Amino acid sequence: TFFIYMSPQALLDAPKTWVGSILGLNQAGKEDLQAGLVKLFPNVTIIDVAAMGEKILDVLRKISLALKLTALFSIAASLVVLMGIALASARQRRTEAVLLKVLGAGPKTIFWSVASEFGVLSAASVFLGLGFSSLFSWVLLVRFLDIHFAYPWRQFLLIWSALVFLCSVTGLLVSREVFRAKPLMLIREGT
Fold first, then answer.
1. Which are the contacts of 174, defined by CB distance < 8 A and separation ≥ 6?
2. CB atoms within 10 A of CB 1
């Protein structure tokens, strides 16, 4: 910050810029004031900062909506991939379930075996996904935009819990053939 002290007479004929703000006017009052100022001073430029701010907020809302839709699409695509992986490995799991049944495991043991597999995999995947997205957000905000980064821990926990639950349930639903596998199936497939 610096100051220049000069005599008012030295700058009397120099071009000037006047900045002012008026608060508390409704839209009709703003329009009347602007029309009156332009009539009296045709070379005056009037900028409605409130309207510009509203347009910027509208653009930011649209960007936010696009990001949310992209995130939902990503979640839907990942669930499709998860279903494909679960279906592809269902035969191997069926064989393992039959072997566990032959060895004396009950339905609860088999259920919790499959559930824990999907639970651990989905928990690790969601944690890594949220961790990397947070890291990239931090780099973008702090390093490039010089904006303070505050991570919303409650939302992180809520998103993590919801996605782990959703992925686990999806994996269990797709793998339901595993729970219906009979020991006779292993003998038939082995011959």
1. 82, 83, 86, 87, 90
2. 2
